[in-house]
Amino acid sequence: MAPPFGSFRMLRFILNKLALIVPTVIGITIASFSFIRLLPGDPILAMAGQHGVTPERYEILKEQFGFNLPIWQQYLNYVWGLLNGNFGVSLSTKRPVIVDFLSLFPATIELALFAMIIAVLLGIPAGIFAAIKRGSWFDQSIMGIALAGYSMPIFWWGLLLIIFFSGYLGWTPVSGRIALQYFFPSVTGFMLIDSLLAGKPDAFVSAVRHLILPSVVLGTIPLAVIARQTRSAMLEVLGEDYVRTARAKGLSPRRVVGLHAFRNALIPVVTTIGLQVGLLMAGAILTETIFSWPGIGKWMIDSISKRDYIAVQSGLLLIALIVMAVNLLVDLLYAVINPRIRVQ
Amino acid sequence: MKLMQTLLTASALVAVMAGSAYAKQLVYCSEASPAHFDPGPTTGGNDFDASSRTIYNRLVEFSHGGTDVQPGLAESWEISEDGLTYTFHLRPGVKFHTTSYFTPTRDFNADDVIFSFERQWKQDNPFYQYLEGLTWDYFQGMDMPRYLASLEKVDDLTVKMTLTEPNAPMIANLGMDFASILSKEYADQVLASGNLADFANKPVGTGPFQFVDYQTDAVIRYQAFPDYWAGKVALDDLIFAITTDPAVRAQKLKAGECDIMSYPAPADLADLQADPNLAVAEQEGLNIGYMSYNTTIAPMDNVNVRKALTMAINKDAIIDAVYQGAGQNAKNLIPPTMWSYDDAIPADVYDPDKAKQMLADAGVSNLTLDLWAMPVSRPYNPNAQRVAELIQADWAAVGVTANIVTYEWTEYRERGKQKDRPGAFQIGWTGDNGDPDNFFATLFSCSAIGVSNYSSWCNQDFEDAIQKAKTVSDPAERTKLYIKAQEIFKAEEPAMTLAHSKVFMPMNKRVQGFTMDPLGIHRFDNVDVTE
User: What gap in Å lies between CA A287 and CA A280, rounded to an integer?
Assistant: First the structure.
């Protein structure tokens, strides 16, 4: 097998994928720019508080923020800013959007990563065993639980876990990223890394304890999806001729499943995992709100409710860029796992 | 060797923990992140809690748990006979915070006062637009540009403020958050450094607590200012743990992760009150929930129709159902805790038969009107939708058909304030400064039509009374004028005053000395904790 990145075909594959990104990004700027403006509400009135503003002052402020310009001109100004690397200044915090985003993003990655680890570590084995024991009570209960997990309203699920594990049993903290007694400078923005850099192992433990419930809540839906996808991919592969051949050769069931079936079943599963990143970002909005997790999900909700047009349009774009980048990586990984993709 | 290291770490840890055991720490579960720490341009109560009431002082301060104006950074002041000149004598020896980013070289003086107002007022001040898109909403909302003629330094400890016309509520305005005093010396340092955003994100004030750190959207840390002019406060450390969901705040309080919380959900109150470790303080808020009739549109231009509509509403039933024990039937626009409240005004009577008769006498039959319901929950009206449904049923009983109308919150207010808006409009108000003018003039003056006079009501006698009350400084005289205003209001019924609501503050029993504030502010300068 040729090294995956060495061939001309691979390069063309990457370039093709990158070329697709350009129209997607343009589409996203249009969508994010218009969605927040389609919502009823007005950023100037939202800022003004209960006193409101006089009609004269309203006009002045509209001009100050450029909201008096025709909508297409506002859009072009926005895109022009983006081309110059300027994501704009938040109407509420008055800080550059990119500054707010970067300061909050590590918290979301940390949470999403943990959620994904839980989803993968539990979802793949559950799916494999369900496939092997197809039709058994084990399969049916796993799939039943997966369906329940998939349908679970995140907000309700999160509160339920808090009330039971934090309130009733007292095993986990209610919310936040770390116990308040720990106070050390933020170096990377990742609490687990920063606590170790600060030389505080007990702070690290506290950060892990704070991560458990929100990761479980955020990981629930991806876990269900991955388990179901793994099961159906495995079932498909297990019926293939080469698996039957492997069995006929007298290979142990463990080798048949682990080596022959699982590797081939992995391909659609990896795609599924990649697609979950978008779902994770959506789930993070609710999970972070319940657990007071200072990430970009909570920030987006706050910005939407304040009608902070600038933060929302640029925040959505940044999140979309990240989801696209992850999906691109998954596509590449997919090509590495499965050489046929490159040949096509 | 490893054992030795572990032992050393452990003993160091014990030492730190032992040290912290002596530090008095209060954790407050707050409801939202502050935009930043400059109270001038912000408008949210959560912004003020995190900035003006912890880090800063004002020339005058509101009393704890009240709205009486007391000396703050001004030790005393005089108002000229004509009510146009205010002379403030500043408190000597007041220090600004010394932090890792600023070391003051001088005490607070007149330059700081002038700077703090001019930055909101004079467009050529370098801090007028020091952050992109500053709008100074409160300075504008309180009409300061209209009233301020000049602000001069007489000497280091004397400031003279001249007004364009007499305005008795001015002193109360100066106790408001936007009027916080910031350091001119720090502003100069920030200006020289070029990092103007530091001024809002790394605050320096004269207040009881000094800023230590803000982890965006998560935790704000303060420590007691040792050189505070009123004496160091009892607490050593104050922490705001930002927790947006009220149910989660309640869980954190119960689990001991915070000591005190803001705005409990009504559904959680009983549970919190039943917890033996917790105490729930309550106070009547300085607020009013009301429903404005558009007095310019027939048949609501007829005062008897307005009175009949109010008479048809069973207010007590609504308050029981919607406020769940946290509401008080409102007979006046201002709440009973406010000075000049007129207790002689009779309460609204619920009498559907008489209401029906009055409507018939006014020649009104088959009346159909819009009934507006706010889309948000506010302390003064926790569920406007439910209120609307109950009123709809009450009105149906007297032959009035109500169509419930609602919009997104800013859109709702925008449509509601249009002069020709049809129907009855639910809205409310939370006092800014404890002055009756803040209710009467803001909500029902003729000039507020199209801004915040949702009844489009302009009554000359009422207007004369409230405008005169603005210009006289004698409290007894002002009280008389406001009582007259309340009588006219009741006789004319431009709005149905529904309720004043109570505000609750659940806290751990180890929290001592917290006073509820009628203005909805959360202050911790007089709070202590027992171990």
Answer: 10
